[in-house]
Amino acid sequence: MFYEIRRYQVQPGRRDEWVRYMEDVIIPFQTGKGMSITASFVDEEDPDGYVWIRRFEDEQERKALYANVYESDEWRDELAPKVRGLLLADRITVTRVVPTPASGLR
User: Fold this and answer.
1) N or C of the chain: less Cβ packing under 10 Å?
2) Cα atoms in the Cβ-side hemisphere of radius 13 Å centred on 34
3) pTM
């Protein structure tokens, strides 16, 4: 099992709009496609920072879920354009992590 820690920079001053969109649209859409969303955070020190975490059993599951989400017509036609308008795409970072034996996320 592993997690993706995804760090985004939202367009300046639009983080509240982004969080609403994530919580009302993106997270329900992705969980409906089988994604496991572990957490969603705003950065306390960066007014435009946002972090979320997704969990995968293995690489095969990650690839299948990515296809379910990102190759869907709804993502391409409706959600992705809105996401591109709210985020600074060149500032997205994704870190894959594996929990240690004593981790509460194991």
Assistant:
1) C
2) 12
3) 0.92
